[in-house]
Amino acid sequence: MTTKALQVGQLIIALPEKCLLTTDTVLNSYLGEYIIKWRPPISPLTALCTYLIAEKWSHKKSLWHPYLDLLPETYNCPVYLEQDAVDLFPEPLRRKAHEQRSLVQELYNSSKRFFLSLQPLFPEDVQSVFNYSAFQWAWCTINTRTVYMKHSQKECFSREPDNYALAPYLDLLNHSPSVQVKAAFNEKTRCYEIRTLSRCAKYKEVFINYGPHDDQRLLLEYGFIATSNPHNSVHVGTDTLLKYLIPEDKQRHAKVSILQEHKLLNNLTFGWDGPSWRLLTVLKLLCLETHQFTSWKKVLLGDTISERNEKKSLDLATKIRTSLTEETQQALQKVALLKKDYVHLVNQLTLVEALHMEDLKILLLSAENL
Fold first, then answer.
1. What is the domain range of residue 131?
2. CA angle, 67 as apex, 147 and 116 as ends, to 5°?
3. Which are the contacts of 218, defined by CB distance < 8 A and separation ≥ 6?
4. Mind listing the pLDDT tens digit for each residue in 327-338?
5. Which residue in 119, 167, 181, 281 has the most C-beta neighbors within 10 A?
């Protein structure tokens, strides 16, 4: 909450460099010598995860314990969610969630040997300190809370970008899609600064903006959704799209090849104002008749081929929207049943339910626009 009205361009917060937790913090700690001599080099992300786990284990002895005590014990990112909850995600979020879970598991597996080398630092078995649950927590802490801060490449780390900085206190600021901010590390003041580009009245909560993300991205990366999010959209998966191809269409394989070649099979969406331009363009190409097929380049440039083609593509958009609406309603029914049977998953299922409810709002509004 702000105790005074904030004007556009005003500084919300400036956090000194010494308060930021970065790979420099890690290298200057007891872990530094172990990281420097380890081969092959670990990634900057692994270094930060290792430090967080070790510091949390140290608890009151850690300089960072007031910050660590404020961090959540668990997160709502897909990495943490039960499989039953993830299976109820819409496509392609379900696929991305599986990719995220695999990525974290692989990173943990590839770090195990390095963790074993740290045994001299701990009186108990190092494998119990650096278990998968601890790594999962550290990875989610970094993924949901770091701010961007570029660091020079160091030989003791692998070639992955080193641009993480945990910013205690600053990460208590919540996201709102309706505000705008300017956030960056100021080289002159040596502080990470956030300035508001929106006004904020006295005694109101001060929000920041994590970026123009839809709810699927927010859930994947941060573990929450924003209701009535203007950036929200319902994604049309490739499988959903291609099942509407007519088997008798002799050019269907050529059409799919063109879409693949121009990378047009991803990011097809329905938004608050109906089907996106990208989705309609793809549908227009799929609806081209045999004698019109040579005009496919004009379609990609946004030209109108014929009234019949326009009507067919809108009809196809309506069919897809209807199918997605039915799928969303079925998912909501499944969630409602699971909430009764799996009481321990109520919080996770409520999050999934909210995601589908937002999708349903968009799809119903798209019906009116179509």
1. 11-222
2. 85
3. 175, 210, 224, 225, 226, 229
4. 999 999 999 999
5. 167
